[in-house]
Amino acid sequence: MGVLARAPIDLLRSAFDDSRQRHAARRLVGPEIGLLQLCAKAPVTGTPFHLGEATMTRCVVEIDGRRGYAVVLGRDPERAELAAFFDALLQDPQSHALLASALLQPAEDAIMARRCRKAEEAQKTAAHFFTAARQGSAP
To answer: CA gyration radius for the chain?
Structure first.
């Protein structure tokens, strides 16, 4: 599900346009935009606390008795519906084999490339500090 939620939207659109089952999909829920409570734990004590809220979009789709679920961060109804559609298709063994090579692998590659690109951009702004050994005693 994480791969579908982060996949480039143009990749999801093109795979949906190529799908023969796109007309068989029936929306059961949404897409609905709402809030998701974010919880975290204090690093030292491990005490849970309310970090805040994030906007999310959810959708549930049914195709031939198989239900696909999607929850994506942000306000993106199209992405949530497409992710739910493919989640339902991936439950069918025949569709899973086709989608694994046609959609999931390219999506994983695109996600990894985006992560590397962001890491390179962040590295350009990194401040590098060094310390010189001092002679004598510390001040």
So the answer is: 22
The structure's pTM equals: 0.76
Going by DSSP bridges, is the β-strand pair 66-73/48-63 parallel, antiparallel, or unpaired? Answer: antiparallel
Query: Are the CB atoms for 56 and 41 separated by under 8 Å?
Result: no
- Structural element, H or E, at residue 116: helix 105-124
CA-angle at 69, arms to 58 and 67, nearest 5°:
135
Query: Do 30 and 77 meet the contact criterion of CB atoms below 8 Å apart?
Result: yes
Strand order in the sheet with 26-41: 26-41, 48-63, 66-73
Q: Which two tokens stand for residue 37?
A: 């409570």
pLDDT digits (tens, 9 = 90+) for 53-76: 999 999 999 988 899 999 999 999
Which region holds residue 47: left if phi is over 0, alpha if psi is between -120 and 50, else beta?
Answer: beta
Residue 63, phi-psi category: left (phi > 0), alpha (psi -120 to 50), beta (remainder): beta
Residue 115 has pLDDT above 60, yes or no: yes
